[in-house]
Amino acid sequence: MNTSLRLRLVVIILTPLLVIAGIIASLAVYDAQLRANARFDRSLLSAVLAISRDVALSGGDALSPETNALLQDTSGGPVYYHVYAPDGVFVTGYATPPVAKTPLDEVESGQTYFDSLYKGDAVRVLRFTDAVQIDGLSGTFTFTVWQETALRSTIVRDLSRRTFGVIATLVLAVALVVWFGVRLGLRPLLDLEAAIARRSPDDLTAIRRSVPIEARGIVSTLNRLFGQVSSTIEAKDVFISNAAHQLRNPIAGVVAMSDAVRSAKTLEDMRERSEELAVASQRAGDLANKLLALERASSQGNTGSFTPVPLATLLQEVCQRSTATCTTRGVTLNLSVPDHPLTVNADATMLSEAVTNLIENALIHAGPDLSHIDVSLADKTAFAVIHVQDDGCGIPPQFVEKVRERFGQVRPSAGSGLGLAIADAVARHHNGALDITPMPKGLRITLRIRQAD
Questions:
Q1: Are 29 and 77 within one domain?
Q2: DSSP secondary structure string, 273-340?
C-alpha cells in the first residue's frame, strides 16, 4: 500500500470524528425542529385560548383588540382562525379551515395538532374543542387556528446552518491540528530515515539514535539484521581468504607437476610425473569440493530442501560406499542401527556428506594403529544420535575446539582439515550439534539431529 503514513493516520483519526460530527449535526437539526415546533405550537395554543375566551364573552361577535394583536404578532407569522358551534353552524373567523390529511378522532374537549395545506401553502393547525355557552346555546364548540410553516422552517434552517457551521469549523480545526500533530509526531521517523540514507553501503554498525518507543522494535530488528549481515560478510571474507590460502599450494603443485611432465626427458619419467600430477589434481579437486560443501552447509536458514530422511537407510548407503576404502586400508567398518525406524527432516545430501567426512576423518587422522571404525545410530527422545568412533590415536582434550575449526589439525596429514568443520556446519544447519569426545583409545564424534514430528 503506497499511501503515506501521515495521510493514513489523519484518515483513521478524522473518519470516526466526521461520523460523530454527522450524528451530532443530525441530532441538532432534529432538536431544533422539535424546539421550533414546540415554540410555535405554544403560540397557537395561546391564540386559540384567547379566541375561545373572547367568543364566550362577546357571544361570537368580535375579538378583543388584544387578541387581534396577538394573532398578528405571533412568532411565525399571522394566525388564522375558525369557530363553529356544536351543530356545525359557523360562528366566526375564516370561512374554510384546513382539514387533516387523515380523519381525526372526534373528542369532546381537547386539542389536536396536525399539518395540512391552506390555499396551497403548508400550515400548522391546532383544532381545539371546549364546552362553551353562547347566547343560551351550550355545548362543545370547535376552534381551529392555523399558521403558515414557511417562517418556522426558515428559522429551523438558519439554526441548522449555524450548527453546521460551528461543527464544520471544529472539524476543520481538529483536522489541521491532527495533520500538523502527526507531522511533528513522525519527525523522529523521518530523521531516522535520513540518518540511514546517509550511511555508506559498508556501514553496518548498529543504530544508536534515540527513537520513540513505537519505533524501537523496528530499530532493534534493523540492528539485528545489520549484525547478521555483518557476520555473514565477515564469515564470507574469512572463508574466501582461507580458501585462497589453502588452494594456493595444491594449485601450485599441479602447475609444478604439469611443468615437470612437459620437461620429462624419458617416457618413464613422464609416466611417473603424470601419476604425481593426477594425485595432486585429485587433492586439489577434493579440497575444492570440500570447500564448496562447507560453504553450502554454513548457509543458515535454507531449509527448503529438507525432506523426511530415514537415517538407517542413509547410514547403510554411506557405509556401503566407504567399505571399499576402509578395506583397502585394513580397517573394519561396523554399522549398528536400531530395529525401529528413525526419521529426521534434513537435507539428505548434506547429512550424507557429514557422515562420510566423519568416516574419512578417522581414516586420515587416526594414525597407523587404526583397526576399526564403529558407526551407530541411537534414539534419544527428541533427537536421533549418530556415533562415529574409532580406535586410533585420538587427540588431546585441549585440541577439541581446534579440530572443529576450518583447516584445524592437531598434526600434519594428507587431509584438508575441513571434515569436522563440514560436519559441524551440517549439524548447526539442522538445529543439531556435533560433539567431539576423546576416548582412552581413539575418538568418538556424535552428531545429533532432531527427529521428525
A1: yes
A2: HHHHHHHHHHHHHHHHHHHHHHHHHH-TT--TT-EEEEHHHHHHHHHHHHHHHHHHTT-EEEEE--SS
Structural domain of 360? 303-450
Contact by Cβ (8 Å): 436, 445: yes
* CB of 85 closer than 8 Å to CB of 132: no
pLDDT at 64: 83
- Flag whether pLDDT at 251 surpasses 80: no
How many C-beta atoms lie closer than 10 Å to residue 280's C-beta? 20
**pLDDT score at 154:** 81
Q: What is the mean pLDDT of residues 349-373?
A: 84
Per-residue pLDDT reduced to its tens digit, 275-318: 777 766 766 666 566 556 656 655 555 555 678 888 889 999 88
Q: Hey, how many other C-beta atoms are within 10 angstroms of the C-beta on 435?
A: 15
C-alpha grid cell, residue 188: 523522529
Cα(422)–Cα(444) distance, integer angstroms: 16
* 94, 100 contact by CB (below 8 A): no
The answer to whether residue 200 sits within a structural domain is no
Question: Which set of grid coordinates corresponds to residue 415?
Answer: 587431509
The answer to whether 145 and 116 have CB atoms below 8 angstroms apart is: no
Strands (E), 38-169: 80-84, 90-93, 110-118, 121-134, 137-148
Question: Under DSSP, is residue 435 helix (H, G, I), strand (E, B) or coil?
Answer: strand
Contact 307, 452 (CB under 8 A): no
Residue 174 lies in a domain: no
SS3 24: helix
For residue 411, give the DSSP letter.
S
Between CA 144 and CA 85 the distance in angstroms is: 12
Domain stops at, among 296, 324, 349: 296
Residue 180 in domain: no
Q: Greater confidence, 307 or 242?
A: 307
